[in-house]
Specification:
Blueprint (H helix, E strand, L loop, with lengths): L22 H7 L3 H19 L3 H11 L5 H24 L5 H7 E4 L1 H9 L4 E5 L5 H11 L4 E5 L5 H11 L5 E4 H10 L6 E5 L10 E6 L2 E6 L1 H9 L3 E10 L2 E10 L9 H16 L13 E3 L5 E3 L7
Parallel strand pairs: 1-9, 2-5, 2-8, 3-4, 3-5
Antiparallel strand pairs: 6-7, 8-9, 10-11
């Protein structure tokens, strides 16, 4: 079901940021989906055969994560990844003009009751996902359909223009974008207003003050501890957002209980459960994860000292 209850009133200053798009970008956004997916096919060919975009990194990470696959299988995943990545790029442009009706028609969300039950009881919910499929469209769809305030953590970009652009896209349908370092303070201040809190937490925690190491795809891998800290401090449940591509420009989102608000787990247990769920989804649909991102930069040496170095494919 995608039907949303009426949104509770929000306090002043708690509404999504409204940012205008440049005229030229709005004009591009009016071009039909057919044009953009044809252009995506061209970008896919360019990335695969001419530019060979981060090919060494992509292949090396795929081979480390799927040692059972031969070169032909790795090549198929890489080609499908390029197409998936190109589709996400053109869908970002289309996001500037996509309508609510188009978004509802292209994305099916299952399991709203898993989240709404907690919100109706006055309890906020942490929505945790990964860089799988089109995570920006997942945010837009949940903003439309959830029926409650939604805060989404983000890391500000160095380029001011790009930062404003992506903030405008991601907040189009009501999500309030909050710098990750300010998220906890914001949510604590609004504890009386139940809300969903969205976080994409499968990046390499290069700049994080703390990190937790888990076994991820057979590699010792560092993960952010922010989602776990937030869930523990606020005593709120964690719901995993699993997004799968059902067709070109069409997605299905499953909202799955991950950790209960009253569940007792050892330190690091929430992070480890999240990492296992991300891995399971990527194993199920490997081409839809962000393989061009240099994931394994943070490592521990033999003495347990954390060091930042080159990722697989750059050594």
């Amino acid at each position: 079901m995608n039907d949303a209850p009426a949104k509770p009133a929000e306090a002043a200053g708690d509404r999504a940021q409204a940012q205008p798009f440049p005229l030229w970008l709005r004009a591009l956004g009016r071009l039909p989906f057919g044009f953009w997916y044809a252009f995506s096919d061209f970008l896919t060919f360019l990335a695969e055969h001419l530019i060979r975009y981060r090919r060494k990194v992509i292949d090396a990470q795929l081979k480390r994560c799927f040692p059972e696959f031969d070169d032909a299988a790795i090549g198929r995943i890489r080609r499908d990844f390029y197409r998936s990545f190109a589709d996400v790029l053109v869908e970002s442009i289309k996001s500037t003009r996509i309508t609510e009706e188009q978004m509802r028609a292209r994305i099916e969300v299952r399991g709203y009751d898993v989240v709404r039950r907690h919100l109706a009881e006055g309890r906020s919910v942490l929505l945790a996902t990964g860089h799988h499929c089109n995570w920006d469209w997942s945010l837009l769809a949940l903003s439309l359909g959830l029926g409650y305030p939604l805060d989404a953590a983000y890391k500000p970009l160095h380029d001011a223009w790009a930062d404003r652009l992506f903030l405008a896209i991601r907040s189009r349908f009501g999500a309030h974008m909050v710098p990750a370092k300010q998220l906890l303070l914001r949510v604590v201040r609004r504890r009386g207003q139940p809300r969903a809190i969205a976080m994409v937490a499968d990046q390499d925690p290069v700049s994080a003050a703390t990190r937790h190491f888990v076994t991820f795809f057979g590699q010792e891998t560092a993960f952010y501890t922010g989602p776990e800290a937030l869930a523990r401090v606020l005593k709120i449940p964690v719901v995993f957002v699993a997004t799968r591509r059902s067709g070109r420009g069409r997605y299905v989102i499953e909202l799955e209980p991950l950790v209960g608000h009253d569940e007792e787990l050892p330190e690091g247990g929430i992070t480890e459960r999240y990492a296992r769920r991300v891995e399971a989804l990527v194993r199920e649909r490997p081409a839809e994860w962000l393989w061009s991102y240099r994931r394994w930069k943070m490592r521990r040496d033999a003495d347990g000292v954390v060091q930042r170095g080159r990722t697989f494919g750059e050594e």
